[in-house]
Amino acid sequence: MNPTIFTENEISSFAEQGFCMVRGLFSEPEIQKLLEHAKVDRQLSESTYGRKDASGQETKLALWNHPGDDLYGMFSRNPRIVDRMEQVLQGEVYHYHTKMMQKEPKIGGAWEWHQDYGYWYNNGCLFPYMASCLTSVTRSTKENGCLQVIPGSHLMGRINHVKTGDQTGADLEIVEAAIERMGIQYVEAEPGDALFFHGNLLHRSDQNNADYPRWSIISCYNAARNNPYKESKHPRYTPLEKVDVGAIENWQPPAV
Asked: Are strands 111-114 and 185-187 parallel, antiparallel or unpaired?
């Protein structure tokens, strides 16, 4: 079995449900390496900021547009993610941005219902040829605010979004109707599990009420043929140079 591509059943799941979970996409040593590095990475710490939910609880995150030769780039440039993105988006993709999400115990805030394309459309991306891969860095459970999705909601198309707290969320009247028809699925995951999901999939997460964190790295991609027609805070088409599948294991921090 090719470790960098979806099976036919997984492609069907993505098309019908708007998402596909790949268990154990990254190994325990790879994820542990990422977690240990992120915890002591001064640059990541200095670029981390907070977003408050409607109740004032805050989730921390760091975001960057261009993948480099650092450890985070070994994930977002890895064929295990990029090749699958090229399958479901049906052609060449480029890196749109990556986020390191840090939802800390007891204080990590919620994320309102939203579609990623609900934001990205305003950045000049005319078509929803966009998707994300969320890789769990720590355990993700209902208790610590795991991702929730509405299966099949990507087929509804783009929904209007409005401001809620520091966040912008989807029109709740539409969301409630979607939940009534399609339900909610909680995406619980172990470290190294990866959820691939469509840019129009409705998703959210609860506050972290557990005594353990929920960290994840989310790499987002746009189809090269969907190059934005205008400048925005995220990049226009930039060729993406893939690394070797084993690049994470082989990566070493630069000598000081």
From this structure: unpaired
Q: Please check whether residue 134 is in contact with residue 197, taking contact to mean a CB–CB distance below 8 angstroms.
A: yes
- pTM equals 0.95
Amino acid at position 85, single letter: M
Q: Which residues are 20's β-sheet partners?
A: 196
Instruction: Count CB-CB contacts under 10 A for residue 50.
Output: 13
Residues 198 and 128 sit within 8 Å (Cβ to Cβ): yes
Contacts of 180 (CB under 8 A, 6+ apart): none
SS3 call for 111: strand
Q: Place domain 8-225 in its CATH homologous superfamily.
A: q2cbj1_9rhob like domain (2.60.120.620)
Which pLDDT tens digit goes with each residue over 84-125?
999 999 999 999 999 999 988 987 778 889 999 999 999 999
pLDDT category at 194 given cuts 50, 70, 90 is: very high
* Backbone φ and ψ of 135, nearest 5°: -105, 125
At 228, list the tokens. Answer: 């934005």
Altogether, the residues listed in the chain come to a count of: 256
- One-letter identity of residue 36: E
Question: DSSP code of 255?
Answer: P
Taking phi over 0 as left and psi of -120 to 50 as alpha, with beta for the rest, 207 belongs to: beta
158-193: pLDDT as tens digits: 999 987 666 778 999 999 999 999 999 999 999 999
Query: Would you kindly state where each structural domain of the chain is located, as residue ranges?
Result: 8-225
Give the torsion sign (CA, 207, 168, 134, 7).
positive
Answer yes or no: are the C-beta atoms of 203 and 149 closer than 8 Å: yes
Backbone angles phi, psi at 233, to 5 degrees: -70, -15
In whole angstroms, give the CA distance from residue 154 to residue 123: 19
